[in-house]
Design goal:
mainly alpha
């Protein structure tokens, strides 16, 4: 929440939870279709985790709220 400072944490959390729910719903619906390969679900989840880890590693933090707080004290 520190990285999205001007926006409230509840709003960002709600957006993330809603997006996660939509993706999970699409994931579940795709495997309820007839003749779908359930074994592919493992590879999809492994790929999603891999992309998530890479995304966390390349994300550059910018603590605007912390910078604002430390500038006001001096």
């Amino acid at each position: 929440m520190e990285c999205v400072y001007p926006v409230g944490g509840g709003i960002v959390g709600g957006i993330v939870i809603e997006a996660m729910s939509v993706v999970l719903l699409l994931f579940d619906i795709a495997f309820m279709l007839p003749n779908s390969d359930i074994k592919g679900m493992n590879w999809v989840l492994t790929s999603v985790y891999g992309v998530g880890v890479i995304g966390v590693l390349i994300f550059r933090e910018k603590y605007t709220r912390l910078d604002l707080d430390t500038q006001m004290k001096t």
